[in-house]
Amino acid sequence: MKTLLLTLLMILQAAALEVAVSVVPLQTFVQKIGGARVHVTVMVPPGSSPHSYEPKSADMKALSKAALYFAVGIEFEEAWLGRFGDANPAMKIIRTDARIEKMALAHEEHDDHDHGTHDPHIWTSPANVRIMAHTIADALMEADAAGAAHYKASLEAFMREIDATDEAIKAALSQTPKGAKFMVFHPAWGYFARDYGLIQIAMEVEGKEPKPKALMQLIETAKKEHIHAIITQKEFSERSARSLADALEIDVRPFSPLHPDWSNNLIELARTIAR
Ligand code: ZN
């Protein structure tokens, strides 16, 4: 009881650094490095698609307290980061995608909800997350110099977790031939596929469910490529993935790139794709 009170007092005394981020995985990364020294607000609520998100007045209000904003390079930021800055000029905006080499979207993966010309799902690659983690740690150290030793130690621990995640993914895929294809509804796993020698086939056509003719072609492709599961995510409709899976008597497996447990989510995805 006494320790609980002490802990509460310590939390009340040391106001946490207020930080805002665009998507849930960034919250995971900032919390891993910041721990109790930071309080993180996420703009895109869990379960909704960041591609169609628009900030509400409550989101703008949350930003008024933030000292830092971590952007990831997703569509809505282009339209809104300027306004976020106007609403809170003291807030420093950090682009975690700044030192990331972006991949072009393959033509068949191109969405009409406009991913731009680059794939924005950069955090599905552990190699990218190593770079992002350093960018996050540098910004936290600059904003809160008193916590520098804490941030440095947490960054090192997070780097070990990223290494372990990478090793576990490689182990899961050790029997899977290079160039093996996996089928997804929304093409969110391009960087993951690139890093581990896999090929992502998207069902989504220009951001929409495939039409019957395209669906028939996908069924043929899935047969030819020995696809044994369709990866879906709760932020998008499962309807066409279900009909494809039913036609082939294979599984639909939900995996969201926005899952808060970044590491286990990627490892489980690798195990699902493995053959
Ligand atoms: Zn997406």
What can be said about this structure in brief?
The protein is of the alpha/beta class and 275 residues long.
What attributes does this structure have?
275 residues, 4-stranded parallel beta sheet, 8 strands, 13% strand, binds zinc ion
Descriptive account of the structure:
- This protein is of the alpha/beta class and 275 residues long.
- It is built from ten helices and eight strands.
- The protein has helices at 2-13, 24-34, 57-63, 75-87, 126-143, 148-172, 190-195, 212-224, 239-248, 262-273, and strands at 17-21, 38-42, 68-71, 92-95, 180-184, 198-202, 229-232, 251-254.
- The protein has a four-stranded parallel sheet, with helices on both faces.
- Strand 7 (229-232), helix 9 (239-248) and strand 8 form a beta-alpha-beta unit.
- Helix 5 packs antiparallel against helix 6 (148-172) and helix 6 runs parallel beside helix 10 (262-273).
- The model has no long low-confidence stretch (mean pLDDT 92).
- The structure holds zinc ion (ZN).
